[in-house]
Amino acid sequence: LNFGVTVLTGTFAGYILKEKGWTPERKLTWLVIIGVSMLTAGWTWGIWHPVIKKLWTSSMVLVSSGYCFLLMALFYYIIDYKGWKKHTGWLKVYGMNSIVAYMLGEVVNFRSVVQSVSYGLQPYLQDWYNVWLAFGNYLIIFFILRAMYKARVFVKI
């Protein structure tokens, strides 16, 4: 049930953004109001039903959805409302195949590929080695998504 609610909150955000009769200011206002409301409700509900990601509690759904609405409002304000689109191309590459990005990250362990290619760097990077592995994982997924984007291959449900 909580997964379904998470999907529905994302769908509602999409409906707000696609609403043709609304002004950009109204869209932005509603994204912020809903985000703050969900955060308030989630953290308040968390007093009795703790916010636990691994269990995907209902309070966690409200809190994470609230943060997502606020981030959506922030990006909508920056990119669509203010028109600051410079350096946002990588977001489009990820957004057009976000399902593939998620599935690749869950199914294929690219960290092991990065680890085998950069074997021997650990003594030099020390504590930053795990950051390097995560960044390499991101880069591999990004280049796969970029190739799909350039080939105009988009996975939709």
Structure characterization notes:
The protein is mostly helical and 157 residues long. Helices cover 73% and strands 0% of the residues. It is built from 8 helices and no strands.
**Individual helix count:** 8
The SS-based structural class is mainly alpha
The helix content, as a percent range, equals over 70%
Order of helices and strands: HHHHHHHH
Poorly predicted spans: none
Radius of gyration: 19 Å
Major sheet details: none
Summarize the structure in short:
The chain is 73% helix and 0% strand. It is built from eight helices and no strands.
Q: Layout of SSEs?
A:
Layout: H1 2-18, H2 24-45, H3 58-81, H4 89-96, H5 98-107, H6 110-117, H7 122-125, H8 129-150
Helix pairs in contact: 1-3, 2-3, 4-8, 5-8, 6-8
Characteristics:
mainly alpha; 157 residues; 8 helices
